[in-house]
User: Fold FAD-dependent oxidoreductase from Hymenobacter setariae.
Amino acid sequence: MSDTADVVLIGGGLAGLAAALDLAGRGHRVLVVERKQYPFHRVCGEYVSHEVGPYLRRLGADPAPLEPASLTKFRLSSPAGCVLDSPLDLGGFGVSRYRLDDYLYRLALARGVEFVLPATVADVTFDAPLGRHTLTLADGRQLTARLVLGAYGKRSALDRQLGRPFFAQRSPYLGVKHHLRLPGFARDVIELHNFRDGYAGISAIEEDKLCFCYLTTRDNLKRSGGTIAALEAGVLAQNPHLADILQHAERLYAQPEVINEISFAPKQPVEQHLLLLGDAAGLITPLCGNGMAMALHGAALAAPLADQFLRGELPRPALEAMYAQTWHRTFGARLRVGRAVQRLFGGPMLSELVVGGLRYWPAAVRALMRQTHGKPF
Assistant:
């Protein structure tokens, strides 16, 4: 591994791996710093809209070898079990992050991307006269790069260093993910089930597995006695559809994946000369189910601009301005819609009214889906 690169990616999730593949394919020396060893699990709904298909094929990373589930239908339930069904116009596929991230990682290795892992970036500085970044790792090693892309996820100590406003605000949300087996569960449907102060999604991934992932609040957990098992038995199971899932499903690993402090507050896609991708740039509410596609789309926006910069065709101020403008134009409206939609499902009574009303207004359901999803890119 060289300690100097054209581009360093901080974080090797979907956004980081896709951007690494893209930039390496354009002839640049690319280095990815990731804090874990592949493969590993992440808290994620593991549904990807088909809008990403053309980009993955351009990268030579078609997910077909992973045998993902094909998802074409949507089902939504209120806390009391009232159900709304709708087609997914564009559709999508289901595949675990454990398998998809490892697949992209191995493709990147084969194409010359260098990796530093497991490793954590403790500090990033920028030398304006030299036009270079210096990254200091937690073990003291240093890396230098002409450009740094931050794809480190929802929340990192780097956000504190960068002085990002959302980091100083406590967030009430936590996310939990299980992998399950549940005989008879339809493999072409995404189900989203509301419960008091939260909602859970379940859909098929590869093989005969299901991803079961939910968002709720720390207060909900505390009121349930502080354990995930008690929360699921006492709160999630009040929704009859969730009660059935929890009663009959086989859990495929002993403990769920859990993440705290999930913030949906607005962020900026450029901070102190770092271009930010994926959840580091902005997090869409899981209710809208499109975070994985947005991460890949962010890489598709950043890579061609980064390529122009690295070739000397675009000065840094123009690079940063153009990326920020393109990012806001592409994602700003869907993030606002996502935050607005999430507020409709905060309380049981409002959730019942919304789901009950939308059952008789299918055009509105499909319009909301179009507002939170993009077109193939």
